[in-house]
Amino acid sequence: MFKQLVSKVAVLFTAFMLTISLPAMASWEEASQVVENATGKMLSLMEDSSFREETRFSALVSEIDTLLDPVVDFPYISKLVMGKYYRKASADDRTEFAGVFRTTLLKTYAKAIVGFDIKGYEVVPAKTKSPKPDKQIVTVEVTSSAGTKFTLVYYMRKKAGEWRLVNVNLDGVNLRLTFKNQFADLAQKSRGNVSRTVTMWKEQIDPDKGASNG
Predict the structure, then answer these.
(1) What are 191-213's pLDDT values in tens digits?
(2) Segment 64-92 mean pLDDT
(3) Sign of the alpha-carbon torsion through 61, 65, 66, 72
(4) What is the number of other CB atoms lying within 10 angstroms of the CB of residue 148?
């Protein structure tokens, strides 16, 4: 009788664990599919060798913007990059920085794509489950034509039923943290003046934007 009870409890516990692990795994599968689709489209875009020409850089940025718009949570990332200064910023400052940061991120990505001749990539299966199904980490190993390998770690967050990229780690370099430190450094130089900090960002990080807004 006791053995039968233990057996039933074991079965119920196993079933319970499966109901917990399945959504988590499904969530990772969903997030990884978003990353893989975006990566595939990016590689297809770069099959057009004309995008590697300097005169086509603006067109490349525009194409990348179209591809990443439904994948990257630009407003969320820009908010975290501003850090503690976000609360001090006016609504106009927040909107202005979100726009210039988006352009900065797109240009940074475009330059990396042009400078790195990708031969192939592989999405690495998750080794452990995320404790939060709506937050997943997707690792991608990229190989260049020269045989150089890089590891990209994508941090994905699900909001309103959609998976969005909120951070990237490239071979140990946290992209969002790097930009956050840059913003904090400029904020210190401007003595905490957020409007001035945004202007300095334009001038130093994104010269084209700075020039157009004088």
Answers:
(1) 999 999 999 999 876 555 444 44
(2) 95
(3) positive
(4) 11
